[in-house]
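quick one: 6-O-phosphono-beta-D-glucopyranose bound model?
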Amino acid sequence: MKHAPSAAPSDAIVFFGATGDLAYKQIFPALLGLVRDEGLAIPIIGVANAGWTLEQLKARAADSLRLHGLTDAAASERLLGLLRYVDGDYTDPATFTRLRQELGEAIRPLHYLAVPPSLFATVGEALAKSGAARGARLMIEKPFGHNRQSANRLNRVLSRLFPEENIFRIDHYLGKEPVQNILYTRFANSMFEPIWNRDHVRSIQITMAEAFGVQDRGKFYDETGAVRDVVQNHLLQVLAHLTMDPPTGEEHEAVRDQKAALLKAVRPLDPAHVVRGQYAGYQAISGVRPGSTTETFVAVKLQIDSWRWADVPIYIRAGKQLPVTATEVIVDFKRPPRETFGELVPSSSGHLRFRISPDVSIGMGVRVKQPGERMVGSDVEMLLTEQQAAHVLPYQRLLSDAMHGVGDMFGREDIVDAQWRVVEPILDDQTPLYIYEPGSWGPSETEQLIGVDGPWRNPTVASEAPDGTA
Ligand code: BG6
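yep, here:
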């Protein structure tokens, strides 16, 4: 990935929300990775309003590293030695004065806002007033806005405080090895491009299945729902990696320019092509509103209005409490124009399968002849690559990129807007909600949605039968 023209690395990391869940689950492990793999040795300042001391923050960090099995004692020691802590209210200017002091000599800090979205603008403005925003980069967690209008409002506030090239909107799917590998595999080979279009592709399916429920995130999830939680961001980004045109030229924005062009060509969703579901039992979760109509499952049919993709049906499906935890993409190719061997073959012939999680693989499905006298075949899949898990944590990669001013794997103002534009017609209660049984593949209406473009290709995991049943 290419660096921005003035990409001097950040000389301090400030992370707001240091005592929170995200810091515990993702940020401390990512920071350890940076210390261990990249020799990170700059001040790391945690900020929170928890009445904590630096010692408490260090204890929390050590606990997080233990929990994640990160046992490199020397690297842990170095990380704990880099930690600083500022405690205070985000609406109190004194908090930011203390932060400015703690920053000392640093002139290019990276401010990472791991705080609720309602605080993004408050913290951004306070950083600007205190002088801590000068020369700084800003990294922000999702969700970026609640709809198109609020995302635009937030973009306007932030753009007054930071230049666009210094704003890094996180979508952790973009930090995932297999998601980057979709882009890499497509454009590091010339064999895919000639068949990557409406002449050869029959359909595309993207499935993100989670076998667990909303757990302890009732309140957050109930205000969010599957469309906002994973479709508007993660899955549209996966779709963009799959379908965008090759980046051209040497400009450091080349990848995002093509991605933006693709996402702007995705037709806003038609409510008639959406199935929303909620798993039975969801309403009993703490934090969920009585009578909630928030979806925990969604399946949509998308169209891309471009010469390359016109009329290729694209299906995205995501849900909680499904039979497995796996994310997978299937690009299905058209069958040959005539049946040379007179056998009844399935309606597609050949596919590419990108497994994003839990394991990482790319498989190519083809039909080959079965040994014997008759010209009869069977479907086989060859594995192009297979890994048990990605080596570098998504957050480690994203932090490292943001520190070096590399924005390719982050949202951009126009990209975020294009993503909201796609889902806007189906947000909230614009379409019916169906109840589904936990452990099923969602409401039965999903079958009618896919119709003759089906069947749905249910991802399987090692201990399961091919149809996804346990
Ligand atoms: C998050 C969503 O962004 O992504 C969660 O808020 C979801 O609801 C998670 O479970 C999935 O991420 P991953 O990396 O586990 O696939």
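Confidence is low (pLDDT under 50) at residues 465-470.
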